[in-house]
Here is the input.
Amino acid sequence: MVADAAKLRVAVSKGARGETVIDAGKSVRGSIEAGLRLAEICLGGLGTVTLSPTRLNPKWPFELAVRTTDPVVACLASQYAGWALSHGEGKGAFFALGSGPGRALARKEPLFADLGYKDRASRATLVLESDKAPPPEVVDKVAGACGVAPENLAFIFAPTQSLAGSVQVVARVLEVALHKTHELHFPLERVVDGLACAPLSPPHPNFVEAMGRTNDAIIYAGQAHLFVTGPDEDAEALAQKLPSTTSRDFGRPFAEIFKAVKGDFYAIDPMLFSPAQAIVTAVDSGRTFRAGGIDHKLLDACFG
Here is the structure.
């Protein structure tokens, strides 16, 4: 991204501690291509994210496709936005959720106890869902947790309202499937491959609306295909439980749900955060199981 900054329409600078900072959508326009790069960085270089036309959604003809041969590490140890970073209080406070390979160096989240995975490296990169770069205090915190010098850190940030920000969030369609698989207590070591797709959502200048659209792309039109080992009945049970259609909150635009709970994420059914349709193949038998479905009418209403 640094080498292609002009083409991607991103801004590269050095922070107070010597860290590399890439603005992918706040003070610059950014681009869809920057979002694709961001998504692959979030996956720690272990996945591929592409954009291509599809006939699946008539009014929204382009979709993001994500694939990885190491879905557990790529999605849960790297892409998942699980590292909460904050400093200060009040109007000038900083808060952002960190994604990317730096998480597997710091291992600050309980999730890593289940994953049993750790990286060793002299450099670290984090992607922040934020409209500003981290302050020096957060840079110091990340450097210490990752065990690297501040000048060997890179932070890439993009607000959800931006082109790049909206792309990288929708590209989490496979990650949310893996996260829900974990929440359903399916053994992660039995997930051997994965791919997923979701329509490219149009950005919106309002944060809640933009966040709503990126979530709706996954919840109402996302598809995930997991390849698992073990008995057929386990694969079938996972397919039946995985789609967002099983959630009590399914059926309304996400922005509407978010406003109804007054912005309290914890009041939203966590089972909602998953693709609309799940396909699970039991590789030992070759049988495939499906559940859920795409809601074209609701997707149209959500995207505007």
Summary: Residues 176 and 274 are 5 Å apart (CA to CA). The chain has twelve helices and twelve strands.
